[in-house]
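Long-time lurker. I teach an intro course on protein structure, and each term I like to show students one example going from raw sequence to a predicted 3D structure in token notation. This year I'd like something fresh instead of my usual example. Would anyone be willing to generate the tokens for the chain below so I can use it in lecture? Attribution to the forum is fine with me.
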Amino acid sequence: MAGRVEGKVALVTGAASGIGRACAERLAAEGAHVVLTDLSDGAGHEVAAGIASRGENASYLHQDVTDEAQWAEVIEAVRKAHGRLDILVNNAGIGLGGSVIEMSLSDFRRQMAVNVEGVFLGVKHALPLIRASGDGGSIINMSSVAGLKGAASLAGYCASKGAVRLFTKSVALECAAAQDKVRVNSVHPGIIETPIWDTIIGTGGPGANVAPQRAATLDAMAGAATPLGFKGDPSDIAEGVLWLASNESRYVTGAELVIDGGLSVR
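-- Reply from a regular --
Happy to contribute to a lecture. Here you go:
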């Protein structure tokens, strides 16, 4: 089935790499005009240009999701360029691992600012524009399996992703009560090969061999912890995001879409 989000306008944060990039590319391939945002401008422009080279619609904007003024600017830019917003994918996030007694307060706060405050600000500023169309829309907040269960040496990350999970459910109920036809759901990836793991598992040092080191480490982790026995790809998450963005999930709100190879049920 092609054109599953044809004519819709989507905003994807953290779209220069990893899951955000995969989501932006998949939504564009199904007919959406995708506005990508990130802090990595070079990579962000490159992803947007790659989408456009395939005859699909994409544009890029610089954004720090922890900056409320920038959220207002991004939403205003979307309004001026497209007149509407139908899909928000709050994907931008960071992962900081380490013992709770060794993590600095500044790192804990930085992780919460990006992973929780960034999602809050996205919903706060995007929801009025989504509502303005009168056609409803879909807000998709990227949580994690770490938002469903605890993990040693990931207390701060688990706290942030758990907050996203319940924030999502509360906003879903608020939108349902307002009868605005806006659905709000969270997505919970498991072991997916993305750069966020470099700061969690310590493969983010300098050198050209970072990606192979990450891949090997995640292969071992997934083989040991995941019932399906292998790690996921960002495209696996993008397919779920596309479904939540499309009208195929019109009766789904306040839900947790877990895409983890069975990790959370072991």
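Some talking points for your students: The chain has eight helices and seven strands. The CA atoms of residues 29 and 54 lie 9 Å apart.
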